Amino acid sequence: MSEKEVAVVVGGTGAMGQVIARRLAAAGLRVVAVGRSAASLQSLTAADPNIEACACDISDDSAIDAIRAAADGVVRMVVHGPGVATAGGVLAVPTAALADAVNIKVGGMLRLVRAVDARLVRGSRLVAIGGHYGFEPTAYAATAGVANAALANLTRQLSWAYGERGITSHLVAPGPADTDRLRRVASARAARDGLSEDEVLRDMQRESAIGAFTSVTEIAWMIATLLAPEADALAGSTLFMDAGRRRGLP
Questions:
Q1: Mind giving me the DSSP string for 30-96?
Q2: What is the pLDDT of residues 65-84, one digit of tens each?
Q3: Domains annotated on the chain, with CATH
Q4: Band of the pLDDT at 1, cuts 50, 70, 90?
């Protein structure tokens, strides 16, 4: 068993997950990166000896045993950040795609937490990465909107379920980040509205009070900040990182 405390990062091979994994490793944690592609995991772990691979499918219950075997130490933090398919707008999205998105986001978070339950300690953090569309519904991002809204509810439930043990649950809800996934969303919106992808991206930037997308390094910074003991006060919270996109209160 490693003497280092462990962080488990689901979606560790994605554009966001890689940055998060490296940030947590730099903070002194042994990081278990979870992903479906063993090849992608190998390229990530080869670059940092503090990152280890766990190849499994978080959409299936078999992931529970796989993660439990890999996270063989005190688990200080779990980060659930898998992507879901961009399957179009609410008028055209296949219902099966919506079900798959909820299974990956909500079911996946439950599998992750159940895998490490016995290794959580007072001060451990359960962190899910949601998104802007879970709180600002649109007609063109059905899977992200529905799944992330459900994830927000699950985060609050986990907060109450684990609070007595001094374990806190958090949802990080970034605004659009300039990644390949954002460009797929922009492409779907462009096709719907008869615009170019670049026009859509510029429009999306103007939706921010500061005219910016959220960066993956900013998201990783926020997640690493939750390691601080003062983050107990954020139990059950949703941390909006949307560069000033939300207009509603609260």
A1: EEEEEES-HHHHHHHHHT-TTEEEEE--TTSTHHHHHHHHH--S-EEEEEE---------TTT--HH
A2: 999 999 999 999 999 999 88
A3: 6-241 (3.40.50.720)
A4: very low
